[in-house]
Design goal:
The protein is built from five helices and eight strands, in the order βαββαββββαααβ. It is of the alpha/beta class.
Length: about 190
């Protein structure tokens, strides 16, 4: 699980230690409270993703490497997941029901055309995390999806995409009109 530590106590302890080493006692500043900001855990069930299971797990891991405010974890057996991931013969798509909840389809049609399965997985999970399509767009934008072409294998969100997800799950941003619509099927 991702956590952020803010430690003021260590600074205060070092100040006291160095003061005492110099032979003079001085008052240490009041220690700040140690706080940890835990990531919001969002579970996913990839049991229906067939041959794309490892690509889905890698897409989730990429998001976990890229942001701190949310963590995607596989659901436990019998646990209801926030995200259901399925494989089918259509085009990849995502249906969001609320931020961090919905269904992703890893469509074989895009794979047959030559699109990268990990990029597809990461892109579709991006929709569930609140991001809209950015089309047309360059390969450096994960949310540009298929418009970046079949040679694009970048599965990592860019700085703006990371920042938006951090804001949605960390509370710093509010949703804007250009964000991925909720309770809507997004076909890429």
């Amino acid at each position: 699980m991702h956590t952020r530590q803010v430690t003021g106590g260590l600074v205060a302890a070092l100040a006291v230690t160095f003061s005492l080493m110099s032979g003079q006692a001085t008052a240490a500043p009041a220690p700040a409270q140690d706080t940890a900001v835990a990531a919001r855990v969002v579970t996913y069930d990839a049991s229906g993703s067939a041959e794309f299971r490892s690509a889905v797990d890698r897409g989730a891991a990429i998001w976990n490497e890229s942001v701190n405010a949310v963590e995607l974890v596989p659901s436990a057996a019998g646990q209801r997941a926030n995200i259901r991931v399925l494989a089918d013969d259509g085009w990849p798509r995502a249906q969001t029901t609320s931020l961090g909840n919905g269904t992703v389809w890893i469509g074989r049609q895009a794979v047959i055309e030559g699109h990268n399965t990990i990029r597809i997985s990461s892109h579709e999970l991006g929709h569930i995390l609140g991001l809209p399509d950015i089309k047309p767009g360059p390969c450096t934008s994960l949310m540009s999806g298929s418009t970046a072409g079949t040679s694009c294998t970048n599965a990592y969100p860019n700085a703006a995409e990371k920042s938006a997800v951090e804001g949605y799950f960390g509370g710093a941003l509010t949703r804007k009109s250009g964000d991925a619509p909720l309770n809507t099927l997004i076909v890429d």
